[in-house]
Amino acid sequence: MSIFLDLVQLFDICGTFQASSADCERGFSLMNAIKTKSRNRLEVFHLDQLMRIKSREKNGPIDLDKV
After folding, report:
1. Which of 24, 29, 36, 46 has the greatest CB tally within 10 Å of its CB?
2. How many angstroms from the chain centroid is the CA of residue 55?
C-alpha cells in the first residue's frame, strides 16, 4: 500500500511540471516590450500591473465595468 501512496505522490509532483517554457518566454517578451531603456526606473509593482493589463488585452477586450 505504501508503494501506491508513493506513486500517487510522484504523479502529483510530476503533474505540476510545465510541458514547455512557452508561457515563461511569453512573459519575458512582454516584460521586455514594456520595460525599455526609457522606462528603466519602473518599480516591480508598476511593472507587474502593466504586464497584467497588457496580457489581458491580448486575451480580448477589457470590460472596464468589471474592473
Report:
1. 46
2. 9
Instruction: Please enumerate in sequence order all residues whose Cβ is within 8 A of that of 54, keeping only pairs 6 or more positions apart, or say none.
Output: 30, 33, 34
Rg (CA), the chain: 19
Q: Say if residue 1's pLDDT is above 60.
A: no
- Tens digit of each residue's pLDDT (9 = 90 or more) over 3-17: 788 888 888 887 777
Contact assessment for residue 32 and residue 54, using Cβ atoms and an 8 Å cutoff: no
Lowest mean pLDDT among 6-10, 11-15, 50-54, 55-59: 55-59
Q: How far apart are CA 19 and CA 42, in angstroms?
A: 32
- Cα(23)–Cα(30) distance, rounded to whole angstroms? 11
